[in-house]
Structure formats: C-alpha cells, structure tokens
Amino acid sequence: MKVLVADQFEQSGIAGLVAAGCEVVSDPALKDDALAAALRETRAKVLIVRGTKVTADMLAASELSLVVRA
Predict the structure, then answer these.
(1) Are 38 and 59 contacting, i.e. CB atoms less than 8 angstroms apart?
(2) Could you read off the pLDDT of 26-64 as tens digits, one per residue?
(3) Closest CA relative to residue 5, chosen from 43, 46, 61, 40
(4) Residue 54 and residue 33: Cα distance in Å, rounded?
C-alpha cells in the first residue's frame, strides 16, 4: 500500500510503516497545488498530515482510502 506523508512525521513512524510493507513517500513541504499533484502522481491510498489542509477537490481527484491526521 502506498502512503504519502505530507507533513512532519516521526522517522520511527515511517520506519514502522515500511516494516509493515507500505511504500512510503515523504515530503513535509507539500501544500496546496503541490499536494494535489503529489496525490495524483503517487496514487497513494493513505495520506498522513498534521496541520496541512486537505480539500474536497484533493479528495475527489485522488485514490485515497484513508486520511490520517497525526
């Protein structure tokens, strides 16, 4: 499963996801249009954010099954 981390996230959390068999793409700088583009390009099923705003348009244009606010 592909996971996109678009905010600051503990390295141990990323390591845990990788150990569980996830493919993790991490870019804490993703916001707005860059985040929307990354969702389309990566075809991630899970998005992990903290304070990053995720809009309805981003959700509609992506293949996300889950958004996690860490």
Answers:
(1) no
(2) 999 999 999 999 999 999 999 999 999 999 999 998 999
(3) 46
(4) 11
